[in-house]
Each structure stands twice: as structure tokens, then as C-alpha cells.
Amino acid sequence: MTTTQALLDSLLEHKSAINLATTGQKNQALEAMANQLEEQIDAILAANKLDMRAAKDSAISSVMLERLLLNEERVKDMAAGIRALIALPDPIGLVLEETTAANGMKISKRSIPFGLIGMIYESRPNVTSDVAALAIKSGNAVILRGGKEAFHSAQAIVTALKSGLSQAGIAPEVVELVQDTSRTSATELMTAKGKIDLLVPRGGAGLIHAVVENATVPVIETGTGICHVYVDKDADVAKALSIVVNAKTSRPSVCNSAEVLLVHEDIAKTFLPILEAHLAGQVELRADQPALSLFERAVPAGEDDFDTEFLDYILAVKVVKGVEEAVAHIGQHSTGHSEAIVTENDQAAHIFTQSVDSAAVYVNVSTRFTDGGQFGLGCELGISTQKMHARGPMGLREMTTYKYIITGDGQIRI
Amino acid sequence: MTTTQALLDSLLEHKSAINLATTGQKNQALEAMANQLEEQIDAILAANKLDMRAAKDSAISSVMLERLLLNEERVKDMAAGIRALIALPDPIGLVLEETTAANGMKISKRSIPFGLIGMIYESRPNVTSDVAALAIKSGNAVILRGGKEAFHSAQAIVTALKSGLSQAGIAPEVVELVQDTSRTSATELMTAKGKIDLLVPRGGAGLIHAVVENATVPVIETGTGICHVYVDKDADVAKALSIVVNAKTSRPSVCNSAEVLLVHEDIAKTFLPILEAHLAGQVELRADQPALSLFERAVPAGEDDFDTEFLDYILAVKVVKGVEEAVAHIGQHSTGHSEAIVTENDQAAHIFTQSVDSAAVYVNVSTRFTDGGQFGLGCELGISTQKMHARGPMGLREMTTYKYIITGDGQIRI
Lengths: 414, 414
Known about the structure:
Chains A, B: It holds the Pfam family Aldedh. Chain A is of the alpha/beta class. Helices cover 42% and strands 21% of the residues of chain A. Chain A has two domains: 4-221 and 386-407, Aldehyde Dehydrogenase, Chain A, domain 1 (3-Layer(aba) Sandwich); 227-369, Aldehyde Dehydrogenase, Chain A, domain 2, CATH 3.40.309. Chains A and B meet through helix 11, helix 15, strand 13 and strand 16 of A and helix 11, helix 15, strand 13 and strand 16 of B. Strand 13 of chain A pairs parallel with strand 16 (400-411) of chain B.
């Protein structure tokens, strides 16, 4: 087993092979990586079977099993995801700005890769290929540290991707999977100062908080979503119903699903009973006092229910006096991910979009759209909930930084 | 005395007054702030006298005294600096990207202020007005925590700036100076999670490291500069001489001055004796063995001399075999601030600019130009030495983030 430190040292030694690669080289590598995923599909599915068997033995939840599972279609989707990146423009080497100073020196601001990106994630095998492909297209070396449940699958996927890199003439040492899935390796990545240029944790709130709290390398916080839908007094009830049902029930386990419904007091009497009828016992409603009286089978909301990412068929419901109170509540309780207002009133929409301080703010649209694919980024590195560097879905551009190159003929500063 | 916590709470309460201000309102405020600095010049100079007297009593270095000193001209320069920002474009409210998805929803990515920016700095009084003015133009509330040596000066400056804000109809509570200059207040800012959106330390290496290590709020690391000049075998000797002398001696106390000279072995014999003659005893040369033999009065470089920001008339000198060794040395020892190559060889210049991983990479230009003013940003918030979010001199744009506003008519995700 290669130790994590040895992998880091090897990545530093080889990273320039991808940091300085041309667009053509990178796209060739992506094509070869996609081909190799398909060619090595048997090995990948066999490895996945090992992971699935171990997962079943350890009585993992059916949601986790579903995430972990690979089949022919899913591997082909991974390959298609890689090929989709080929068509996207290269984010590296762009001249972002260029000026010539009065003394004749030319100041050119150019986009460059970070260098080495680290990713700590959990059980979904497609994250392995998505992130490796995003790294290659954006010119970054990458060190992947997946969850132990998916280790064999990730290993087989990385083996295929490395074959593709070799075929395309790029050192396969620019993509590495950490071999040790204990906590130690996560800590080693978090503290690899001067080696890892950017570390992204992707997974549950516990994992993300641990990384944000303990890392000494630059981190982008992702994913935790306590998302709100506010139904204004001037909402179209049909749209409100459809958006709340979609935001809550279409995929409750993901970060862009809604956890909290805020409803204007003037429309609560009309809207809440209709909503309850449509949710038809599928969703547990946890309501504040005014809302409670309008539901038939809700339970009183507890102290923490407005600060919890349920990731389940549970919705906290609160009645508010207007858009200002909704904005204030969101300011206090949101994780800064995605929030929606449903209204036909332009002024209410304006106040909401101006004042809600989250990565994605929706007017008459479900929060479920906050996603790299939906935003046109191909796949995504993760969804940033911080304000520094990147916000919302992160794609190729968010994996770049820049430098200034200044050329002259002997200019000195007087 | 208002406590730091009370100031933070007040800033949160009032920040929307500046976060949502229009370009016209912000420019009016800047004009009034500049006017008030000039109108209150007597009070500012009187306050500065108090600081200067206390500084002299505590036997502070002449460099520090020079930094602390205000006079009529310097206050007028501060006002002029604020007025210069009026002419720059507003970085807020820009539509950075806009697309309409296949389902008809419009996705608009817009630049917005961070919200509340914190700055921890030391004794130069103009930082107080520069940073407050940058904050106002970029729509941010700001909490300033200056050094205790400059407290009275900073207080008088902030009083004037607040008068300007009031006159322009913007709540003066959006710019605050921390009243407590003990360590406690710095710690309070570093840990004001959920309140301060971005914290920038500006000053000595000790201050910056303390903030980077201990902050739980987002921080941008600034300023420490172990800057290198590499004189290639194909250098024009006259340019090399002029650049090295300028980079080392024009202002040794600032972060963009050079600390290390790397020189190609083929040119060392010619160049180093000429350099020594020109530095004429003004600069202490600390040389590796090969360089030592070419100087008359150098001392042997110690272990730490290639990892020290001298900020003084000291230069570490090392002979290298070529541009690759220079790049490797810089990769190991640089703080990622500014590095220069002197060469007439395009290929050497290309290797250097591609492979050196610093914020500013110069070809035949002195490192001393890494500066917000020189790069056309007006004044600067600081010089970032990190790769995330911002690199090099930070101006208005680097004080912004963005959000996605998505508008539709009931779109849900299927």
C-alpha cells in the first residue's frame, strides 16, 4: 500500500504534466479516460459487487446501497459525463485582463490551474470519475479520498482513468486515489499545507464540518442545505403547491431539497390545507402554532426543526407576517444554499432576491435546480455554500485561479 | 467604550444600508467622506500628534514613526485617494453571466458585496481611509481594527468619514473602528463566524500568521513577500543591475522588495562583482559558497537566509545551474508573492512565467510594481499571497462575491 504522504509527494513531482498540458492533450486524455471506463466495465462492476456485498453485510440503509450501486448504464453515464466535458471551453490560459502601463510594461492576468486539488467524499462512485475528469480538463492534479464503502469501485474506476491518461501520453500519476480509508488519511489531506492547493469535502454535514474546522489547507465548504420556500400572500396557489411538493418530495436526500416552508399569514388559511391534502401523509409536517391550527395531522415544531437538514420526508412550517419576516428568518436559519419565493408580486420578489444572502435565490422556481448539470457546467465539483472564491455549483472555472505576468524591458519603480 | 461585540451587532443591523446602496449613493458618500477628511484636518492632525508623542515616548523605530506621521499633505492624499475611487466602475450589480434554460427559467449570475468585511492592520493611518473607501465603493460594511499606536489618528479619520456618510444619507454605522486595541478584539473578529464575511489581516508576518491560524471566519492571507530575482545567463547585465538594485534598495521595508538573488553560474562571475560595486556597502550580501568567492565582502548565507523576509538592506545570493533550478528553488522557498527573471532569452522567460507559481511573475521588470495603485486598482485592500478567491493586489472586484438569481413561472425539476 502506498502511503498518503508518498502519493502527495508523487503528485507534486508529476503535477506539472497536467498543469502545463495543452487543451488538445487534455481533451485527448478525457476521450481515452471515457473509453477506458467502458473497456474496463467488467472489472469495475466486479469491484462494485465486492463493495455491495460488504455493504449489505454491514446492514447499510437502502438509500446508501442505491447510491453505491453500479451497473452497465451507470458506468456508461460516467463515460458520457467525461465526454461532455470535452465540448466545454478550456478554462485555462485565458487572458482575463491585459493593460500596458504608462512605463511600457505589459500586465497580463491569466487563468491557471490551482495545481493540486484534494477531494474528500463518500460513497457515490460517479464522484470519482466526475471529479477526476473536471480536474483533468481544468489542468489540475487530483488526490481523491473516497469512503471505505466504495473503495473497490473507486479503485477500479481510477485504474481505468489512469489507463486512459497513459494512452494519451499524460503521466497517470496526476490522478491518485488514497489507499487508506481511515480517518488518518483525511487528516493528512486536511493538513497537507503547501502541497494541496484546494480541498473540497463533499458529503454529509459531519464530514464537511470536520474538514472546515480542522483543515490548514484552503477549503471550500459545500453542500449543507437548509433550503427555504416562502409562499407570499400574492402567490399563485397552483405554482406554490407544485413548487413546494417538488422541492420537498422529488428527492428529499439531496442538499437542494426544501426543509422549511414559510407562508404568509394572509394565504396560510387557503394554502396549508391544500398542501396537506397533496402531501397525503407522505411528508411529516412540523408546524409552528399558527400553522398547526390549519393542518389536520401536523405535529408541533420543536426548537431545532428550523435548523435541521432533515434530508427526509419532513417539512418544518412557519407562518410569517410578510416578505421582510421571511427574509429575516432565512438570514438567521439558512445555510446559504438555495431559497425560493413564490409570488406574482414584483416588489416582493425584488426584496427577496436582493436581501436573501444565499448562493441561489429563486423566484417561482423549485430549489431543486441548484446543480452543476442544470446550470450548464457539465458535472460539478460540489456546491459551495461559502462566499469566498465560489458560490453555488462549482464547475471548471471554479477550479482555476490566476496569476499576473508582467513583461517589460528593464522597468524599475522610482 | 462600545464593545467589539456591540459594534458587530450594530454593523449587522445596519449593513443593508450600504449592501443595497446604488452607485450614485455610494459615489456621493465617497465625495462627502473626502470633503470631511479635509474639513476635519485640524482634528485629525491633533489626534495624530497624540499618537506621535506616545510613539516617541515608547522609543519606536524611526521607520514606524515615519509610517505613523500625518501632515496636511498626507491627509489631502487620503482624500484624493477616496476621490479616485469615484471614477472607477461600480463592481456591484454586474450581470456576470445570464442564460435561459430549456425549461424557460432564467439563470442570472450577479456580483454582490460580501456583506461585512473585517480588517486587522497596524500603524499606517491611510489604511483606515483607503479600506473604508474601498468598502463603501464595493457596497460592504466594514469593521476596522488598527494598531494601538495609531488609535487616535484612526479614530479621528473614522469620525470624519462617518460625518461624510451621514451627510450623504447613508447610516454612519456601516463603518466602525474597534475601540479595544488589545489582543482580545482581534480574537473576537477572527471568531465572529456568521457575522464577518471576509477578514483581511495586513501587516507583519506575525500578525498575518496569527490570523490565518486562528480565524474561523473566511480569511485572505496577505503580504508576506520573500521575493526572488533570477538573473539568467542570457540577461542584459545593465537591466539586471538596475532591476536588482531597484528591487532590493528602493524601499526594503515593503513586501514587494526582493530578498533573494538567484544568478546563473555562467553569468555570476561577470555580474556579481559589478553588483557588489553598485550596492557599495549599502546592502549586506549573504552568499552561498559559489557566490561567496565572487564577492569581496559578503558573508556566508546561513540556513534560514533563503527563507527570511528581511525587510532590510540584506540580500541572500545563490548561484544556480539554470532556469529549472531557479524555478525549483523558488517553488521551495517563495511565499508566492512576486518573482522576476532577467533574460533576453524567450524560452527561459517562458519556462519561468509558466512554472513559477506566484501571484506576480515579472520578465525584465522589478518586483516592486506589485501594488494596487500600479496595477490600476486605485488603492488596495492588501496583496493576496493565496490562490483561493484573489491573488496579488486586491481592489474593488476582490471585495465582491456573487449569487445566482433564478426567475421563472413555476418550473419544477422532474
